[in-house]
């Protein structure tokens, strides 16, 4: 089993590692600003936040707010991968639609965009035009994966579930058992051993994980699970 710290940005697991213990998330509250590294109040931010803070102090909030939308101000650093002729790291203005993003980075045959990595949301082609990349649509930590029509969305989801199963630290039952059961469940449906309706039960399990898992890793499995199963259900079935 791995540690959820890598994917969910679970800073308390980072503190555990820095203190020489196994990198497992802590119960909250208390939150890090009250009790963090060595039980002292701790502020933890990624480099991107610190750079934007500097820019706002240096150039002013008004300048920063010229970019983006009312709900999603400024720009963001994106990691773009998958079926794209232009993979890489880009700084882009927030608030563009997925359709505009695909026009810039797609290969002409994009059928889905995974916004926010394995913990994020899958947007199918039919929703590209209506989906904004930002807080008023699909928020993202910056990972953007493009898939063209040669890709099996079953394989994509299976890959994500393998990843979650591996990364689960095993501390709480909903995540430890849930990740495994979701993977076994879609395998059974794909082999025809379970009826397609079983996907509905798996969605209930994913919803339960969202409510009951201890940290962001287990809570976010439902995002990709729901959005892929709902939008590509026919690819999940035997
Ligand atoms: S949800 Fe639970 S088992 Fe999964 S990584 Fe977080 S603490 Fe560990």
Q: What is the strand and helix layout of this fold?
A:
Blueprint: H1 5-8, H2 11-18, H3 47-59, H4 61-64, E1 75-82, E2 88-93, H5 98-105, E3 110-115, E4 121-124, E5 143-148, H6 153-167, H7 173-191, H8 198-212, H9 216-231, H10 233-236
Parallel strand pairs: 1-5
Antiparallel strand pairs: 1-2, 3-4, 3-5
Helix pairs in contact: 6-7, 6-9, 7-8, 7-9, 8-9
- Please count the helical segments: 10
What about the largest sheet?
5 strands, mixed
Q: What is the CATH H-level superfamily of the domain at 153-236? A: NADH-ubiquinone oxidoreductase 51kDa subunit, iron-sulphur binding domain
SS content category: alpha+beta
CATH fold description of the domain at 153-236: de novo design (two linked rop proteins)
**Could you give the count of β-strands?**
5
Ligand types? iron/sulfur cluster
What is the CATH architecture annotation of the domain at 153-236? Up-down Bundle
Q: What spatial order of strands do you see in the largest sheet? A: 2-1-5-3-4
Give the C-level CATH assignment of the domain at 153-236: Mainly Alpha
What low-confidence regions span 5 or more consecutive residues with pLDDT below 50? Answer: 3-8
Q: What series of H and E elements makes up the topology? A: HHHHEEHEEEHHHHH
- Name the shape in a single word: flat
End-to-end Cα distance, whole Å, is 30 Å
Structure description:
The chain has 238 residues and is of the alpha+beta class. Among the domains are: 70-148, Ubiquitin-like (UB roll); 153-236, de novo design (two linked rop proteins), CATH 1.20.1440.230. The protein is 45% helix and 13% strand. The protein has helices spanning 5-8, 11-18, 47-59, 61-64, 98-105, 153-167, 173-191, 198-212, 216-231, 233-236; strands at 75-82, 88-93, 110-115, 121-124, 143-148. A 5-stranded mixed β-sheet has the order 2-1-5-3-4. A hairpin with a 5-residue loop joins β1 and β2 (88-93). It is flat and about 60 Å long. It binds iron/sulfur cluster. The site of iron/sulfur cluster has 14 residues, from α7 and α9. The site of iron/sulfur cluster (SF4) has 14 residues, from α7 and α9.
């Amino acid at each position: 089993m791995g540690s959820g710290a890598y994917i969910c940005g679970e800073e308390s697991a980072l503190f555990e590692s820095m203190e020489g213990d196994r990198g497992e998330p802590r119960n909250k509250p208390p939150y890090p600003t009250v009790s963090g590294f060595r039980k002292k109040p701790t502020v933890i931010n990624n480099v991107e936040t610190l750079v934007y803070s500097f820019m706002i102090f240096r150039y002013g909030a008004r300048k920063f707010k010229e970019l983006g939308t009312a709900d999603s101000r400024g720009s963001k650093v994106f990691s773009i991968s998958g079926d794209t002729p232009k993979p890489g790291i880009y700084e882009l203005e927030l608030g563009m639609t997925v359709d505009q993003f695909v026009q810039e980075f797609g290969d002409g045959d994009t059928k889905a965009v995974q916004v926010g990595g394995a913990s994020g949301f899958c947007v199918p082609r039919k929703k590209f035009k209506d989906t904004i990349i930002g807080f008023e649509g699909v928020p993202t930590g910056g990972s953007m994966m493009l898939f063209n029509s040669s890709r099996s969305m079953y394989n994509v989801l299976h890959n994500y579930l393998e990843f979650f199963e591996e990364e689960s630290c095993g501390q709480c039952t909903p995540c430890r058992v849930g990740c495994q059961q979701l993977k076994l469940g879609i395998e059974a449906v794909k082999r025809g051993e379970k009826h397609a309706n079983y996907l509905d039960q798996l969605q209930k399990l994913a919803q339960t994980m969202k409510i009951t898992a201890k940290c962001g890793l287990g809570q976010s499995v439902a995002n990709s699970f729901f959005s892929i199963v709902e939008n590509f259900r026919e690819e999940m079935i035997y």
